[in-house]
Write a structure and sequence with these properties.
Length: about 200
């Protein structure tokens, strides 16, 4: 009887140990970033395909007109200049876009290599600790035993529906508490851990 009780305790301890993930969250953060507000000087032309085709057509017309009269060349040059001005005006007010960057640094504290991790970034109301938002991610990252890796996901979806896409202020950030949980870990040997 005593032997059966000891076996039962060891079995329960083994099940509890098996429920613990072999990875730990070292740190996590999120931020809002504005992209597309500053033109990259090495980014290539601002023209789209149709605009490039129209510019090349005008250049060919100028070359062809050089064999003819100068009045035709001046007319084509004026049209080309007007087209270029329209393109510049059209692309001048390209609105900036906003993205949200979610990060979690994970340490593999087990003895098996991690192949991928499903993780949730949970947002809680600062006053009531009720969940107000959740982002779910899958990161295909190999993490060797004992190693640490930062998982980074960039998406356009804000943390909660109450966070403005265009105006994030300190009050919005201060009203939220964040937490990251591990949902599933797939190991390189084909085994997996799943949150109960």
């Amino acid at each position: 009887m005593r032997l059966a009780a000891i076996f039962l305790v060891l079995l329960i301890a083994g099940l509890v140990y098996a429920q613990q993930p072999s990875a730990e969250i070292v740190k996590f953060s999120w931020s809002k970033e504005r992209i597309g507000w500053e033109r990259d000087p090495f980014g290539g032309p601002i023209e789209n395909f149709d605009e490039t085709r129209a510019r090349q057509r005008n250049e060919r017309r100028i070359e062809d007109a050089k064999r003819g009269n100068s009045a035709e060349i001046d007319k084509i040059r004026r049209e080309a200049k007007a087209d270029a001005a329209n393109i510049a005006v059209k692309h001048k007010d390209t609105p900036a876009r906003y993205v949200f960057v979610y990060k979690a640094t994970i340490k593999n504290s087990g003895d098996k290599a991690i192949k991928s991790i499903d993780w949730d970034y949970i947002f809680l109301d600062h006053g009531t600790e009720t969940e107000v938002g959740r982002q779910q991610f899958t990161s295909e990252e190999k993490i060797a035993p004992g190693k640490t890796k930062e998982l980074v996901v960039t998406i356009t979806k804000p943390p909660t529906q109450t966070i403005s896409l265009t105006a994030l202020n300190n009050n919005e950030r201060g009203s939220l508490d964040g937490r990251v949980i591990l949902v599933r870990i797939d190991y390189a040997d084909g085994t997996a851990w799943q949150r109960p």
